[in-house]
Design a protein that fits this description.
CATH superfamily of the largest domain: Vaccinia Virus protein VP39
Largest sheet: 7 strands, mixed
Number of helices: 10
Shape: elongated
CATH class of the largest domain: Alpha Beta
Strand content: 15-25%
CATH topology of the largest domain: Rossmann fold
Length: about 290
């Protein structure tokens, strides 16, 4: 097996035939997955091990798991000897997790991750190692929330819908290059580690999943530029992907101003580099609201 702790990007071998030591899928019968929480439990032991190796926690790491579910990945991470702080919204699963990890260094919070202040878990700057098999319906807003708290984050490893990972990791000129690509890559290095097939979950999702690693940049890119203004700019620029900058920025930035930056107003936003988008954000008029 490939050593995931040292490899940046590759495809995971299909490992969906393995089961837990008890011979059945991990926890598949002990809790009925709830659609309103977007629950698809990771059950394949080979995939669980691969994810834990990719994260490669050390004993002194400050690990935060979002949505531990039935504790499959949690248990694998505990093999490193690290402490884990977990955020779980499902009260039934909280009871199960407390029983499973009663003798571990485990702190459990009953909360919605979208409303949680992750800085409260930080013990020093840039120390949180955040992991999670994120429900697809909250993955994008949660990533945007965490991007606003990077001062307490060391890295993030997430299981997401593959389509979302493709967008996060997209490069300029790619059809997937858009708002989430720009805002994530403005402050993080992005690595699409490997794909995970539907058979690795219970119940099986209808889509392919993937693991992504987000690492805050050691040296901030364009630190003098406002991320708020960049966010406003990309909302305008990518609002209608098939239209040109001239159309999407009409009434916002004049053609002459765009041309003055060396950018063709007739191009589409998906062709622009991160630097060019930052340039445009700096000439964006102040927000009126």
């Amino acid at each position: 097996m490939v050593d995931l702790s040292t490899t940046a990007s590759f495809k995971l071998p299909i490992l969906v035939s393995k089961r837990s030591k008890s011979g059945s899928r991990l926890g598949a019968q002990s809790h009925a997955p709830r659609k309103r929480f977007g629950q698809n439990f990771l059950t394949d032991q080979g995939v669980i091990t691969a994810i834990a190796r990719a994260i490669s926690p050390s004993k002194n790491d400050n690990v935060v798991e979002i949505g531990p579910g039935q504790g499959a990945l949690t248990s694998a991470l505990f093999d490193s000897g690290c402490a884990i702080k977990a955020i779980e919204i499902d009260r039934d699963l909280q009871s199960q997790l407390r029983v499973m990890f009663f003798n571990r260094d485990f702190m459990l919070f009953n909360s919605d991750a979208l409303r949680f202040d992750f800085s409260e878990l930080s013990e020093t700057s840039n120390d949180l190692r955040i992991v999670g098999n994120l429900p697809y319906n909250i993955s994008t807003p949660l990533i945007f929330k965490l991007l606003s708290q990077l001062h307490v984050i060391k890295d993030m490893h997430f299981m997401l819908q593959k389509e979302v990972v493709d967008r996060i990791a997209a490069r300029p000129g790619n059809k997937n290059w858009g708002r989430i690509s720009v805002m994530t890559q403005a402050d993080c290095e992005v690595e699409h580690l490997f794909d995970v097939p539907p058979e690795a979950f219970f119940p099986r999702p209808k889509v392919q999943s993937a693991i992504v690693r987000l690492t805050p940049r050691a040296k901030q890119f364009r630190p003098q530029c406002s991320r708020v203004d960049l966010g406003r700019l990309v909302q305008h620029a990518f609002s209608q992907r098939r239209k040109t900058l001239r159309n999407n920025l009409k009434g916002v930035i004049e053609d002459a101003t765009i041309e003055g930056l060396g950018i063709d107003p007739a191009c589409r936003a998906e062709t622009l580099s991160l630097d060019q988008l930052f340039d445009l954000s700096e000439v964006l008029p102040p927000a009126t609201i």
